[in-house]
Amino acid sequence: MVVCGLACWRCRWLLPLLLGLAIIMGIIALAGRGWLESESEPYVQQASLWESCTRGEEDLNWSCESLMDYGWGRAAAATYLVGFVILVICFALAVIAFSIEILRFNFVRGIGGLLFVVAAFQIIGLVIYPVKFTEDIPLTGDNMFSWAYGFGWASTVVVIGCAFFFCCLPNWEDEVLGNIKPTGYYSSPGRAPYLN
């Protein structure tokens, strides 16, 4: 017997879990120093969302300058941080929404709308940063946008996926709440028409 049904009440914690994963990736992006790094040795350049650091080829000490001195640096940090704060709020709302027995599906759709706002803020920050960084900061050697910047994009992609699921979840209200019986298919080998 095969039971069909993609949405189920037991699986309701999957979406908050994915939002938690997006939060973890967002924390790594906010705290990581790998937004921009030297591509190969000698490693003379690295940057985070907050500062840009350089050093000479023989020097062991990094010389850092704050990106908050630039208008675009403040804008990139502010938009990404605002998106992250709204993401944390959405995570708390999702936990509350899925904890109660009588799920309010309009409330869930509102969380999906907020997640689209999160994605918009994060994308703005993630686009401003590389465009303005390469224009205003002198780069030394071969550089690449690295792992922390990638975690920022990964968090944004997960948020966009969750936003679609939160917005579409009310369409499967009966399946999620268990109000309808799952469809089962059963075939007996003795009754299969191709065996007679």
Structural overview:
This protein has 196 residues and is of the alpha+beta class. It has one domain (29-171): Butyryl-CoA Dehydrogenase, subunit A, domain 3, CATH 1.20.140.150. The protein has helices spanning 14-31, 71-99, 105-136, 147-168, 173-177; strands spanning 2-3, 36-38, 45-47, 51-54, 63-66, 143-145, 184-185. The strands form 2 sheets. It has a 5-stranded antiparallel beta sheet with strand order 5-4-3-2-6. A two-stranded antiparallel ribbon has the order 1-7. Helix 2 packs antiparallel against helix 3 (105-136). The longest helix is centred in the middle third of the chain and has 32 residues, at 105-136. The chain is elongated. Residues 1-7 have low confidence and may be disordered.
Write the SSE topology.
Elements: E1 2-3, H1 14-31, E2 36-38, E3 45-47, E4 51-54, E5 63-66, H2 71-99, H3 105-136, E6 143-145, H4 147-168, H5 173-177, E7 184-185
Pfam family, one: PMP22_Claudin
Membrane topology: Multi-pass membrane protein
Subcellular location: Cell junction, Desmosome; Cell membrane; Cytoplasm
- Outline the low-pLDDT stretches: 1-7
The total tally of domains equals 1
Give the CATH class.
Mainly Alpha
Mean pLDDT: 81
For the termini, the CA-CA separation is 22 Å
Q: What general outline do the C-alpha atoms trace?
A: elongated
What are the secondary-structure elements, in order, as H or E? EHEEEEHHEHHE
- Using the CA coordinates, give the radius of gyration: 24 Å
Strands ordered across the widest β-sheet: 5-4-3-2-6
Report the helical percentage: 40-55%
- CATH topology group: Butyryl-CoA Dehydrogenase, subunit A, domain 3
Number of helical segments?
5
Biggest sheet: strands, sense, closure?
Answer: 5 strands, antiparallel
Give the class from helix and strand content and strand pairing. Answer: alpha+beta
- Can you count the beta strands? 7
Q: What is the CATH architecture descriptor?
A: Up-down Bundle
